[in-house]
Structure to design on (431 residues):
């Protein structure tokens, strides 16, 4: 089912063909170093490299009998290589191959996800600049609060994804770790030099103190970062869904020509792309939890993590890669209605400037409690209808004795409320 979401590049990383090709390269690299150590005739390496290959279907057939994937793989390679295949896998355990290959796959998948993340950041920054000074109402608890700009909203998303980029970069490094240290990680039958050679060629680092496996806290960290990234994308999509509601109508995801929103109601333009990403983020958080459960294994290793990772590894990477590509489509095509934002900003009759007025009154000498009482009375009354908030203020002598025309103008000056937008953008760029 997850395959329907996969991009060809990401799908290729998790294919059987790629997995077995990495396994074979690990075995051949190990053979090269063992030859340097005099453990096999020098000509053997060239012979094995020339003949070594595998057949995915044949491996499946062997595995059905022997019930062991690495043995099935080695058996099939031996069928191709002949007698010299006896030197393959010398002193190694299955996890030497499995965990090292998994690290290569996660590293490659992480790099693809990073590319998508970079595109998302760039798209958000571009549109943030486009709407840098477009005023809209800020909302807290879902209620009108004070004015902001739509550009600030998008810029905050870009900055959040930059934090996720930092986390992802660290997680890729953390998980780009392999091991070729034998049955319990003591190098009793394979030298550290073999490990160093193989991992160096693959661009990996060695596990500092291996057991039979690479320790799963590394993988859990990686998948938790993917869950954080997915959760951020969900956060942004939930905001777009709220802004697309009929009563708000300030922004909407793109709606393609010929697209249909509802089988029963032709007028509908539903935020299905955002809703789709909200649902997928729940999957990714579930994968992160499963990866956390894989940390605690018996002694130097059991196999309970293996079946889990066969699903979590490809699925989490495929889903997050898809989410980023779909999110880019949403942001690049986001429909923004500045006129509607202006209408919504004026909807409450100016009460969104109540905080400004309270500060002016406090600065004029009133206590905070008294200023709050005077302002709240008129704000709540204005919300019910009748004269606007500004008109009510002008009619209140108790308030007006504290204000002159200039101060009153400043209270309801939208640009004054947004005077630090450039400062915020500059600070974000500096970070």
């Amino acid at each position: 089912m997850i395959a329907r979401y996969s991009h060809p590049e990401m799908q290729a990383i998790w294919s059987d063909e790629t997995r077995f090709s990495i396994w074979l390269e690990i075995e051949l690299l190990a053979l090269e170093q063992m030859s340097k150590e005099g453990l096999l005739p020098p000509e053997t390496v060239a012979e094995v490299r020339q003949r070594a290959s595998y057949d995915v279907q044949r491996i499946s057939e062997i595995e059905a009998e022997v019930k062991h994937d690495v043995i099935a793989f080695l058996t099939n390679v031996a069928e191709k290589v002949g007698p010299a295949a006896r030197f393959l896998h010398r002193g190694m355990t299955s996890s030497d191959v499995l965990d090292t290959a998994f690290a290569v796959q996660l590293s490659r998948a992480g790099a693809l996800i990073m590319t998508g993340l970079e595109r998302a950041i760039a798209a958000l920054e571009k549109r943030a600049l486009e709407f840098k000074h477009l005023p809209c109402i800020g909302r807290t608890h879902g209620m009108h609060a004070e004015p902001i700009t739509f550009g600030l909203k998008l810029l905050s998303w870009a900055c959040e994804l930059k934090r996720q980029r930092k986390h992802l970069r660290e997680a890729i490094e953390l998980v780009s770790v392999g091991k070729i240290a034998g049955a319990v990680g003591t190098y009793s039958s394979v030298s550290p030099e073999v490990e160093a050679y193989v991992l160096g060629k693959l661009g990996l680092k060695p596990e500092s103190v291996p057991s039979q496996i690479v320790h799963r806290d590394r993988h859990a960290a990686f998948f938790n970062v993917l869950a954080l990234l997915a959760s951020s994308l969900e956060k942004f999509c939930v905001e777009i869904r709220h802004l697309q509601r009929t009563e708000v109508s300030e922004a909407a995801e793109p709606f393609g020509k010929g697209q249909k929103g509802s089988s029963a109601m032709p007028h509908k333009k539903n935020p299905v792309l955002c809703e789709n990403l909200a649902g997928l983020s729940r999957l990714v958080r579930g994968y992160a939890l499963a990866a956390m459960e894989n940390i605690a294994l018996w002694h130097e290793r059991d196999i309970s993590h293996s079946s889990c990772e066969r699903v979590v590894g490809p699925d989490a990477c495929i889903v997050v890669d898809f989410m980023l590509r779909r999110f880019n489509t949403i942001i690049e095509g986001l429909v923004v209605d500045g006129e509607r934002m202006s209408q919504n900003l004026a909807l409450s009759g100016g009460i969104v400037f109540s905080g400004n007025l309270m500060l002016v009154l406090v600065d004029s000498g009133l206590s905070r409690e008294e200023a709050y009482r005077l302002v709240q009375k008129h704000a709540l009354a204005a919300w019910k209808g009748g004269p606007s908030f500004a008109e009510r203020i002008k009619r209140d002598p108790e308030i007006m004795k504290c204000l002159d025309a200039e101060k009153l103008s400043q209270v309801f000056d939208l640009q004054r409320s947004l005077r630090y937008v450039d400062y915020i953008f500059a600070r974000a760029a500096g970070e």
Summary: Residues 289 and 331 are 29 Å apart (CA to CA). The chain has 19 helices and six strands. The radius of gyration is 30 Å.
